Amino acid sequence: MKVVKTIQELKEFVQAAKKAGHRIGLVPTMGFLHEGHLALVQKAREENEAVIMSIFVNPLQFGPDEDFERYPRNLERDEQLAAGAGVDCLFTPDVEEMYPEPSIIAMTVTSRTDKLCGVKRPGHFDGVVTVVTKLFHLAEPDTAYFGLKDAQQFAIIDGLVKSLNFPVKLVGVDTVREEDGLAKSSRNVYLTEEERMKAPHLQQALKLGVQAAAQGEENVQAIVDLTISHLTAYAGAAIDYVELLSYPGLMPLKKAEGKMILAAAVKYSKARLIDNIIFTAGEEG
After folding, report:
1. CATH topology of domain 186-279
2. Which residues are annotated as a binding site?
């Protein structure tokens, strides 16, 4: 595996891969890798001759009171995991390499941000599309791979690709979970022992809501209330939101129909966890 820290080195790898006629798969990450990230690499490995992973904790997508400085980092471990998973090129730039000077262009997401995580994180997805745009230009991928745990992010990047005609195919990979159902996340390390025991109720609450829809419940608020009731009783966390929306449009629903997402976020003492189930009316997610 080739580890590169500069844009010039990355471009040299891309040019060589293109010259060899190789398809390029891109896996953008913020590092502190877990099985969820490695599942993205596995999918990329199956579909491409060259796999590029980026590790970059992007300051533009963190608010002033968020955890940019304490976001977990372990680059040496990440390099070992990436190599073992089959990454061909690991791009690990620092902030100065990605943003050497203030940009005179600002990217603003104008839709799909007024729901879910976007409400409490103003500017977050502007930072996401900015760094993803830069990575798409630098890595020139044929296909890019994102985890569906961050389903709102995937929906917004889908809009980015379509709005700006990026020649990139997006692949959403299902959430990888612990044995008890908790979604793999770099932030799970923030949970106390007691919180870790209660956190799987986030996924269980979502399953109850989806099961109700599968059994014919069409009332959106009834499905949301059922989910909230379970979280309140068992999760031991403050509820940030529970929403049932169309997907990927993230629009309010008059009734539970079509392709939807039931999503929730909860706050523990030092960790905010998100999870979701994407499903179609009449089918269990």
Report:
1. Pantoate--beta-alanine Ligase; Chain: A,domain 2 (3.30.1300)
2. 30-37, 61, 147-150, 153, 176, 184-187
Which of the residues 22, 37, 201, 230 is marked catalytic? 37
Flag whether pLDDT at 284 surpasses 80. Answer: no
Catalytic: 230?
no
Binding site feature residues for beta-alanine: 61
Which residues are annotated as part of the binding site for ATP? 30-37, 147-150, 176, 184-187
Give the residue extent of every domain in the chain. 2-173, 186-279
**SS3 for the chain, per residue?**
CEEECCHHHHHHHHHHHHHCCCCEEEEEECCCCCHHHHHHHHHHHHHCCEEEEEECCCHHHCCCCCCCCCCCCCHHHHHHHHHHHCCCEEECCCHHHHCCCCCCCCCCCCCCCCCCHHHHCCCHHHHHHHHHHHHHHHHCCCEEEEEHHHHHHHHHHHHHHHHHCCCCEEEEECCCECCCCCECCHHHHHCCHHHHHHCCHHHHHHHHHHHHHHCCCCCHHHHHHHHHHHHHHHCCCEEEEEEEEECCCCCECCCCCCEEEEEEEEECCCCEEEEEEEEECCCCC
Question: Tell me: the pLDDT tens digits for 104-157?
Answer: 999 999 999 999 999 988 999 999 999 999 999 999 999 999 999 999 999 999
* Superfamily covering domain 2-173: HUPs (3.40.50.620)
